[in-house]
Specification:
The complex is a heterotrimer of chains A (318), B (503) and C (163). Chain A contains eleven helices and eleven strands. By secondary structure, chain A is α/β, with parallel strands linked by helices. In chain A, the strands form two sheets. In chain A, strands 2-1-3-10-4-11 form a six-stranded mixed β-sheet, with helices on both faces. Chain A has a five-stranded mixed β-sheet with strand order 7-6-8-5-9, with helices on both faces. Chain B is mainly alpha-helical. Chain B has one domain. Chain B has a two-stranded antiparallel ribbon. In chain B, helix 11 packs across helix 20 and helix 14 runs antiparallel to helix 15. Chain C is an all-alpha fold and 163 residues long. Chain C is built from four helices and no strands. In chain C, helix 1 packs antiparallel against helix 2 and helix 3 packs across helix 4. The longest helix of chain C is centred in the middle third of the chain and has 39 residues. Classes of the chains: A alpha/beta (318), B mainly alpha (503), C mainly alpha (163).
C-alpha cells in the first residue's frame, strides 16, 4: 500500500519526456507475482520475503493471496501460467500432500524448484496436570491408561495430523490415540480448558503458554531445537526417531528458463541472509533455511515418497 | 500507573497518533466501499508496518481494523449494500431511513453508537480481561454449538411475513457454505470435480452477490421503465442525531454493547452474530416492533453498537489467549508477532507497557472515527445525488474489484454473478435474503463445532446436555422459537382474513 | 399467471433442487463411520432433506390455498410483465464476460469495455460525452485508487496487459 506513490509521481513527471524502451530487457523487467496459498504465518513470511526480494531484484515481487482448497486453487493457477518467471508460487509440503490426497491432478514435478526459504517445526504440548515432563513418561502412562488419549489437530490430513500420526507411531502409542479435529489456533485453549490431553501445533502458538507455565511443551519434531522455544528438546534427543518439519520455498511452473531460476535463487539467498529476515524468524517462530534450487528439488522428491507412504498408512491416500 | 505513564509517553507521539489516524482512514475507506473490506485492507497494510517501530505499526493495524468495522455501515445505510458482513443487519432499517431522506441521521447515529460500543468494550477489556478470558476458555465445541444454534433461532424473527419462506432461506444459506473442502475431514463436497469449486463460497463474495447485484438489476430495470429517483433527495440535509435521541436509547445501547462484547470474546462467534442478536433483541423488547424494517432508528443503533463492541471483545481472546476470532484479527495477530509481541497468558506479565499501548491505540482510533466519519457524512450523502443508474455502473465495477480482490480469483466473480441472480429470483418470489446471510455466517461454525463435540465425547450425546452453559443457550433458542410460533399463530387468523377479503 | 402459480413453481423448483442435492451428496461424499465420527456427509444430507421437507410443506400449503382462492379475482400480474428479466440476463452475462475478459486482457481494458457496454446496451445512453466520461473516468479512477495508491493487485491479462 502506498509504496507505488513515489514511482507514480515520477511517472507523471516523466510522462512529458518520452523515453524509448530498452530493446532487450533483462529479467525481470516487470512485477513478479508470488502466489501465496495460505494465510497466517505463511502469508506474513511471504510478504516479508517479497519485500526483501524486491530490494534485490529492483522490480517488485508482489505477494498475491490465492487461498482455498488447501492450496489446490493456487497451485493450479500457477501451474497454468506461462513459464516465464513472472508467476511463482510460495509452496510448502502441501504440494506433496495435496497430490496424494487427490486434491490436485499433478504433482511436484509440474514445478521447477527455485529455493527453500524456511522451515517450521511442530511442537507437542500437553496439559500441566498430566505431570509428564518427557516423551518417555508420556508413552509409559498412555500405554497403561484406560480409554484413549485425546489429541487436538487442525483437521484430518492436515500437517499437524500427519506429524502426530508419525510421532505417536514411533512412540508406540498410536492405537491409544483419538484425534479431535479443531479449527486453526484453538488447540492451546482447548488444552487449558482440559477438553483435550495433548496437541501438536506450531511453536509460536505455544510460546506464551510455555513462558507462563500453563502448558508443558514436551518436544519438537525436527532434528534441531527451535529458537523460539530453546529449552524444548527434540524428539530424537529423547530417543524417538522422527524428523518432520514443514518447509516453505518458491517454485515456478515447469519449463521456466534456467537463468531466470538462478536469478530468483540468488535473490532468495540474499533475502534470507538479511538481519530483518533473521529477526522476524525468531519472533514468528520459524527458522531461515535457505537451500539452493537443486538440493531443494531433491528434498521435495524425498518428501513426496515419505508423505505418500504416511497418507497410505492412514488410509487417506487417493 | 507508572507503566501506564510509560505507555502513554510512547503512544502519544505525533508519529504514533498519525499512524492510528492513517490506519483508521484506510479502514474507513475500505469498509465504506461496497465490495472491499477491512480483511483486504489489513492484508495490504501489514507489509508497510514491517519497517516501522512497534507502536505506530500496531496503531496502523488496530486503526484499520476498527475503522473497517465502522465503515461498513456507510454503504449499508446509503445503498443497502453492507460493506462488511457485520453490517448486514444495519441494512434492515438503515436503508429504509435513507429512502425516507433520513440518511444523515442514520449515519450520524451509527458513528456515535459505534464509538460508544467500542469504548464500552475497551473498558470491559481493561477491567476484566482475566475474568473474561477464563470464561472464554470454558466455551468448548458443545457450548459454541449451543450459542450458534441460539443465533440461528433469530432467523424466525427475521423471516418477515412467512416463517416457512424464512426457514427455506436459512437452509439455503447453510447449504451454500457446505460447498468446498470440508474443514474437518478434508473431503471435497459439492465440487463437481473442479478445482475452482474447492475454494468454496466466500462469505463476502456471496454477500456482494446477495445485496449489490439485485440493487444493480433493480436500478437498471427501473431506468429501463423510465422511472426516476426514488430516494428523497429534495429534503437531503446533514442533520445529526440529538442528545435526546441517544438519551432515550441509552438502555438499548448498554444492552447491545454488552451483547457485542460477550459475543466478541467467544472465539469462533464474531461480528455478524452479535449484530443480528442485538437487532433481534432490540425488536423483541421494543414497544413498537412493527416499525422495525421500516426505518426504525433502534434498528440502526442495535447492530452498530454491537458490531463495534465486538472489536474490544475480540481483542480479549486475541491478547490473552492468542486466538484470532476471524481472518481480520488473524492478520492483526501476525502483525503483533512480527513486532515481538506474542499474545497469550505471558503477555500481561512480560509486556504490560505494550498492552497499555494497545488500549490507548484503540481509544485513539475511536476518537479518529468520530472526527473523520462525522465530518465525512457531509461528503457521503452526496453519493445520493449521483443519478442512480450511473451510481449502479460504479457499484458494478466496485463489486467486481471487491469480489476478485478477496482471494484474487476470477472464479469468485462468477460465483458472485450466480448468487446475485439467484438472490434476485428469490426476492421476486418473496423469499427474504437476510436469513440466507445468517445461515451462511453460522453454517460452518454450527457444523464444525458439532462434529468436534461429537469427536470429543466419543459419539456420546451427553456432551450437549451435561454442560450448563450449553443447556442455557438451548433453552433460550427453544424459548425464542416457541414465542415466535405463538405470536405467528395469533397473527395468522386476522391476516389471512384480510388477504382473502382484499383479493 | 397468478401469484399462487408463481409460488407453486418456486416450490417445485426448490423441491427438485433438494432432491438433486441429496442424490449428489449421497453419491459423491463419503459417510462417516458413525458414533464419534459424524462424517462429512451428514450435514449436507440433513440440509438437503430439510429443504425438501420445507419446500414440500410450502407447496402443499399453496395448493391448498389455491383451491380456496380459485374463484377469486387474479392478483396483479407480476411475471407476465417481466421487464426485469432482460436486465437480469444482461447483467448476468455482462458479469461473466467481465470476469473472463479480466483474465485475458487485464483489469484496465476489461473495465473500460464493460463500462462502455453497460452505458450503451443496458442504459441506452446516447450521449457520447457521458459515455466517454464514464468509461475513462471510472477506469482511470479505479486504476489510480486501487491499483496505484492502495496497491491492490488487480488482474493482469494473459493476452495483453495494460497498466
Amino acid at each position: 500500500m502506498f509504496k507505488k506513490l513515489p514511482t507514480l509521481a515520477g511517472a507523471l513527471l516523466g510522462a512529458a519526456v518520452f523515453t524509448a524502451a530498452p530493446a532487450q530487457a533483462e529479467y525481470p523487467d516487470k512485477p513478479i507475482e508470488m502466489t501465496v496459498l495460505f494465510g497466517g504465518t505463511a502469508n506474513t513470511i511471504a510478504q516479508l520475503l517479497s519485500q526483501l526480494m524486491t530490494e534485490e531484484l529492483g522490480d517488485p515481487v508482489v505477494p498475491v493471496s490465492r487461498p482455498g482448497g488447501g492450496g489446490a486453487v493456487g497451485y493450479a493457477f500457477v501451474q497454468g501460467t506461462r513459464p516465464d518467471g513472472y508467476n511463482i508460487v510460495w509452496n510448502s509440503n502441501s504440494i506433496n500432500t495435496s497430490h496424494h490426497t487427490g486434491k490436485i491432478p499433478f504433482d511436484y514435478s509440474a514445478f521447477e524448484p527455485i529455493a527453500r526459504v524456511s522451515v517450521e517445526t511442530p511442537a507437542l504440548a500437553v496439559s500441566n496436570d498430566k505431570g509428564w515432563s518427557s516423551l518417555g513418561e508420556m508413552a509409559e502412562d498412555v500405554k497403561g491408561m484406560d480409554g484413549k488419549l485425546k489429541v487436538g489437530i487442525s483437521g484430518k490430513g492436515s500437517f499437524t495430523h500427519l506429524t502426530s500420526a508419525a510421532l505417536f507411531d514411533k512412540m508406540g502409542i498410536s492405537d491409544k490415540v483419538t484425534y479431535i479435529p479443531y479449527g486453526k489456533g484453538k488447540a492451546p485453549v482447548e488444552l487449558l480448558g482440559g477438553r483435550i490431553d495433548a496437541a501438536i501445533q506450531w511453536p509460536g502458538q505455544f510460546k506464551s503458554y510455555a513462558d507462563s507455565g500453563k502448558l508443558n511443551v514436551l518436544a519438537v519434531t525436527g532434528t534441531e531445537r527451535v529458537d523460539i522455544l530453546p529449552d524444548v528438546p527434540t524428539a530424537a534427543e529423547q530417543g524417538v526417531d522422527v524428523d518432520i518439519t514443514m518447509w516453505r520455498g518458491l517454485a515456478a511452473p515447469k519449463g521456466t528458463p534456467k537463468d531466470v531460476i538462478v536469478t530468483l535463487d540468488t535473490a532468495v539467498k540474499k533475502a534470507t541472509e538479511t538481519e530483518q529476515f533473521k529477526d522476524a524468524s525468531t519472533k514468528l517462530g520459524f527458522s531461515p533455511a535457505y537451500l539452493g534450487s537443486e538440493a531443494f528439488g531433491e528434498q521435495i522428491a524425498k518428501d513426496d515418497a515419505f508423505y505418500g507412504q504416511l497418507l497410505q498408512s492412514l488410509g487417506m491416500a487417493n | 500507573m507508572d507503566l501506564f505513564y510509560q505507555a502513554a509517553v510512547a503512544s502519544l507521539t505525533p508519529a504514533a497518533i498519525g499512524a492510528v489516524g492513517l490506519g483508521t482512514l484506510i479502514g474507513l475507506i475500505f469498509g465504506s466501499i461496497p465490495g472491499l473490506t477491512f480483511t483486504v485492507a489489513l492484508a495490504l497494510a501489514l507489509p508497510i508496518t514491517f519497517g516501522m517501530d512497534t507502536v505506530p505499526a500496531i496503531g496502523i493495524l488496530l486503526g484499520t481494523y476498527i475503522g473497517g468495522m465502522t465503515g461498513g455501515s456507510v454503504s449499508a445505510i446509503l445503498l443497502g449494500i453492507p460493506g462488511t458482513p457485520s453490517s448486514a443487519a444495519t441494512v434492515l432499517d438503515g436503508y429504509p431511513m435513507t429512502r425516507q431522506g433520513r440518511a444523515s441521521i442514520a449515519l450520524g447515529t451509527a458513528v456515535i453508537v459505534s464509538s460508544i460500543g467500542g469504548l464500552f468494550s475497551l473498558l470491559v477489556m481493561i477491567v476484566s480481561v482475566n475474568l473474561v478470558s477464563k470464561i472464554a476458555i470454558q466455551f468448548g465445541p458443545a457450548e459454541i454449538f449451543a450459542l450458534v444454534l441460539f443465533g440461528m433461532s433469530t432467523i424466525c424473527g427475521l423471516a418477515g411475513g412467512s416463517m416457512l419462506k424464512g426457514l427455506i432461506a436459512g437452509v439455503l444459506g447453510l447449504m451454500i457454505m457446505t460447498v468446498g473442502i470440508d474443514a474437518i475431514d478434508g473431503v471435497n463436497r459439492m465440487t463437481f470435480g473442479t478445482i475452482n469449486m474447492m475454494q468454496g463460497v466466500n462469505l463476502l463474495v456471496a454477500m456482494i452477490g446477495l445485496f449489490a447485484v439485485p440493487y444493480i438489476i433493480e436500478t437498471f430495470a427501473r431506468h429501463g421503465r423510465g422511472e426516476t429517483e426514488t430516494n428523497d433527495t429534495q429534503s437531503l440535509r446533514v442533520e445529526l442525531p440529538s442528545f435526546g435521541l441517544l438519551g432515550r436509547n441509552s438502555w438499548l445501547i448498554a444492552r447491545c454493547s454488552a451483547i457485542g462484547t460477550v459475543i466478541g470474546a467467544i472465539p469462533g462467534a464474531g461480528g455478524p452474530i452479535a449484530a443480528f442478536l442485538a437487532y433481534d433483541n432490540a425488536r423483541r423488547f421494543s414497544k413498537k416492533p412493527e416499525r422495525f424494517g421500516r426505518g426504525a432508528i433502534e434498528g440502526v443503533i442495535a447492530p452498530e453498537t454491537a458490531n463495534n463492541a465486538v472489536t474490544g471483545g475480540t481483542l480479549i481472546p486475541l491478547l490473552s489467549l492468542g486466538i484470532p476470532g476471524d481472518p481480520a484479527t488473524a492478520i492483526v495477530l501476525a502483525g503483533l508477532m512480527v513486532h515481538g509481541i506474542t499474545p497469550g497468558p505471558a503477555l500481561f506479565m512480560q509486556s504490560e507497557v505494550q498492552v497499555y499501548g494497545i488500549y490507548i491505540a484503540v481509544a485513539l482510533a475511536y476518537v479518529f472515527i468520530l472526527v473523520l466519519q462525522l465530518g465525512g457524512i457531509r461528503l457521503f450523502v452526496h453519493v445520493l445525488r449521483i443519478p442512480p443508474q450511473l451510481l449502479s455502473v460504479v457499484i458494478l465495477v466496485l463489486c467486481v474489484v471487491g469480489a476478485y480482490s478477496i482471494r484474487n480469483s476470477v472464479f469468485d466473480i462468477y460465483t458472485m454473478a450466480v448468487i446475485g441472480v439467484l438472490a434476485y429470483a428469490l426476492m421476486r418470489v418473496g423469499i427474504p435474503t437476510t436469513p440466507i446471510i445468517l445461515g451462511m455466517v453460522l453454517g460452518p461454525t454450527l457444523e464444525n463445532e458439532f462434529r468436534t463435540a461429537m469427536a470429543l465425547s466419543d459419539g456420546n450425546w451427553d456432551i450437549f446436555y451435561t454442560s450448563p452453559v450449553a443447556l442455557l443457550f438451548f433453552g433460550l433458542a427453544a424459548l425464542i422459537v416457541g414465542l415466535q410460533t405463538l405470536s405467528g399463530l395469533r397473527l395468522r387468523k386476522p391476516r389471512s382474513f384480510a388477504e382473502t377479503s382484499n383479493a | 399467471m397468478i401469484r399462487n402459480q408463481k409460488d407453486i413453481l418456486s416450490g417445485v423448483i426448490l423441491l427438485s433442487l433438494a432432491i438433486f442435492w441429496c442424490a449428489y451428496v449421497v453419491q459423491s461424499i463419503p459417510a462417516g463411520t458413525g458414533g464419534a465420527d459424524v462424517g462429512p456427509r451428514a450435514f449436507p444430507l440433513l440440509l438437503g432433506t430439510l429443504l425438501g421437507i420445507l419446500a414440500l410443506g410450502f407447496l402443499v400449503s399453496r395448493l391448498f390455498e389455491r383451491r380456496r382462492l380459485r374463484a377469486e379475482t387474479e392478483a396483479p400480474n407480476e411475471l407476465a410483465a417481466p421487464r426485469e428479466w432482460p436486465a437480469l440476463a444482461m447483467i448476468f452475462f455482462l458479469l461473466l464476460a467481465y470476469g473472463w475478459a479480466m483474465q485475458k486482457t487485464g483489469f484496465v481494458l476489461a473495465t473500460a469495455a464493460v463500462v462502455a457496454l453497460t452505458m450503451i446496451l443496458i442504459l441506452r445512453d446516447r450521449s457520447p460525452v457521458r459515455i466517454t466520461a464514464m468509461t475513462f473516468g471510472l477506469t482511470f479512477g479505479c486504476w489510480l485508487i486501487f491499483g496505484q495508491i492502495l496497491d491492490i493487485p488487480l488482474a493482469t491479462g494473459t493476452w495483453i496487459s495494460v497498466g
